[in-house]
Design a protein that fits this description.
By secondary structure, the protein is an all-alpha fold. Helix content is about 75%, strand content about 0%. It folds into two domains: about 40 residues, Arc Repressor Mutant, subunit A, CATH 1.10.10.60; about 140 residues, Tetracycline Repressor, domain 2 (Orthogonal Bundle).
């Protein structure tokens, strides 16, 4: 039941917004009582926190698997991370929207639990860029921090416009992004 509450809440938060969705809306849409909700969550914010943790922790696990694959180059790992973020929209696009859009509704205490995990994802990517620079796969004159923010900016914003069932696949979007990141858009 906890998963049903979470899944339905994600759909309602995406449609109506966190602030505009009441616990009553959630339980009514599931045909359960508030007691059922409170059995699993002490508050609507705790539910939001659970959604945030599930989303970022899932990304971190996938990122670690990619980073720990010693058979791949840094360019391949960069592609795999970008592809993972884009393809994740197909699997958890609504949770991504909630993660980015509703973070402002977390208390300082809850935000303090999420923020280090977000930072860890960014630091891991930045270390990948630095390592690729050191071994000659990436240009040595880059600013790894800014490059990392750029990569995360283009991938994280994709949940706003990318349509998994559209004319361009998640793999194609990842290939375009990585080509743009590695080659730029300048001719010659």
């Amino acid at each position: 039941m906890k998963e049903k509450i979470t899944g339905q809440s994600i759909r309602l938060f995406e449609k109506k917004g966190f602030s505009e969705t009441s616990i009553q809306d959630i339980v009514d849409s599931l045909g359960v009582t508030k007691g059922t909700f409170y059995y699993y969550f002490s508050s609507k914010e705790e539910l939001l926190m659970d959604i945030h943790l599930g989303y970022i922790e899932g990304l971190l696990v996938q990122q670690e698997e990619i980073l720990n694959d010693h058979t791949k180059t840094y360019k391949e790992k960069l592609f795999d991370i970008v592809y993972m973020l884009i393809s994740d929209i197909k699997l958890r696009g609504s949770a991504a929207k909630i993660f980015f859009r509703e973070m402002k509704n977390l208390s300082d205490e809850h935000f303090a639990m999420i923020d280090p995990k977000r930072d860890q994802f960014r630091f891991n990517l930045e270390e990948l860029i630095k390592a690729g620079m050191e071994n000659g796969e990436f240009r040595p004159d880059l600013n790894p921090g800014i490059i990392t923010f750029g990569i995360l900016g283009i991938t994280n914003w994709s949940y706003q416009w990318f349509k998994p069932d559209g004319s361009v696949s998640d793999r194609e979007v990842a290939e375009i992004f990585v080509d743009m990141i590695l080659q730029g858009i300048q001719l010659g």
